[in-house]
Write a structure and sequence with these properties.
By secondary structure, the protein is α+β, with helices and mostly antiparallel strands. Helices cover about 35% and strands about 25% of the residues. Strand 2 and strand 3 form a beta hairpin. Helix 3 runs antiparallel to helix 4.
């Protein structure tokens, strides 16, 4: 895991406050540089970490057994847009078709947590989750759908407060449009 440089972050935040015309020494702002450094340590804790390690060691299925689709819905995540350093928050839905092994269900949210704890764009995050699960779980198919609200869309520019962004990545058996449509329908049932 990459360690952040707290003194540099604190100095940079103090400089930003001064640059916008604020007094970083003002009582309400004195602790702000330290608070921002704490937040950044958490927001970017995925830097330098291998998300595949979060999957652990896949567990072999009994000989001659196969597993059908596994879907984990409504996994909450948060990340920080690399363009504006503003947060985006949402839910992830992951479906995978195991090969000869399966992974623990709690491992999938860990992968998402690690990959989202970096300066990101949603499109790349979606692809990284799919790639990590496909290779780390030795899956025959993977579908990842992210639905997120971006502060850079809701609080600045167009200010579309009800807008969400949906991204999708499919791998292996789930690149077939018919199969993908069936999975999306199953994912959607969780939101009713």
């Amino acid at each position: 895991m990459t360690e952040i440089d707290r003194p540099r972050i604190e100095a940079a935040v103090a400089e930003i406050l001064a640059a916008i015309g604020e007094d970083p020494a003002r009582p309400g702002l004195q602790g702000t540089p330290s608070h921002v450094a704490d937040a950044y340590a958490e927001f970017f804790s995925g830097l330098g970490r291998d998300a595949a390690e979060d999957l652990g060691e896949p567990v072999p299925l009994e000989e001659g057994r196969t597993a059908e689709t596994v879907i984990v819905r409504d996994i909450e995540f948060r990340s920080v847009c690399e363009h504006h350093l503003l947060p985006f928050l949402g839910v992830a839905h992951v479906a995978y078709l195991p090969g000869e092994k399966v992974v623990g269900l709690g491992r999938i949210p860990r992968v998402i947590e690690t990959l989202s704890a970096r300066p990101q764009i949603q499109e790349r995050l979606t692809e990284q989750i799919a790639d990590t699960i496909e290779s780390g779980a030795q899956a025959r198919g993977v579908l990842v759908v992210l639905d997120a609200v971006h502060a850079c869309v809701t609080t600045r520019g167009a200010r579309q407060t009800s807008s969400t962004t949906v991204t999708m990545a499919a791998r292996g058996a789930y690149t077939d449009p018919t199969v993908r449509a069936e999975l999306i329908a199953l994912i959607g049932r969780g939101t009713e």
